Amino acid sequence: MKSKIKKITYSSEETIQAACDFAKTLKAGDVLLLEGDLGAGKTTFVKGLAKGLKAKVKDVVSPTFVLMNIYQGQMPIYHFDLYRLEKPEEIASLNVDEYLQSDGIAVIEWPKRLGADMPRDCYWIEFKHISETEREINISVMQ
Ligand SMILES: Nc1ncnc2c1ncn2[C@@H]1O[C@H](COP(=O)(O)OP(=O)(O)O)[C@@H](O)[C@H]1O
Ligand SMILES: [Mg+2]
User: Among residues 73, 85, 89, 108, which one has the fewest Cβ atoms lying within 10 Å of its Cβ?
Assistant: First the structure.
């Protein structure tokens, strides 16, 4: 781990703003793994990434049923949600690899579903539910 940033937010708007600021530091090929319970704020954070990269924030929804959404901004955002995937063959059929180190950024909710295929060169972003409106966000750079 190279570095770690810790941030507490007190509303979804603050989480969006934090992600918006963070998005401006990203470059094509970056991979973001979002870890945390349901409702912890992962998808809200992706809205902020979209805002920061000038994509349509309204398009950002949890891709739970389609598994991946693409948002077009200054560069594409490939947004995966692996929550419903359990079988290794379902995960393999998604070809997540094709979207890593690509022309855009890959953002993956429930990355542990990838098992041994979980990318190592990534931002590891953990969300903790502190209270109804309070979240702790830890961003680590992994290599
Ligand atoms: N500080 C906060 N940061 C992010 N979301 C918050 C915060 N406070 C309340 N919320 C609410 O918590 C929920 C988070 O949902 P979501 O982002 O979909 O979580 P996840 O993708 O982790 O399941 C939303 O309803 C959001 O409005
Ligand atoms: Mg989500």
Answer: 89
Structural domains in the chain, CATH included, are 4-142 (3.40.50.300)
Question: Which amino acids bring their CB within 6 angstroms of ligand 1?
Answer: 9-12, 14-15, 36, 38-44, 62, 109, 127, 133-135
Q: Report phi then psi at 4, rounded to 5.
A: -140, 135
Say what the pTM is: 0.96
Number of H helices, E strands in the chain: 3, 7
| Each residue's pLDDT tens digit, 73-122 | 999 999 999 998 878 788 888 889 999 989 999 999 999 999 888 999 99
* Residue of 14, 44, 133 to mutate, ligand 1, most atoms within 8 A of C-beta: 44
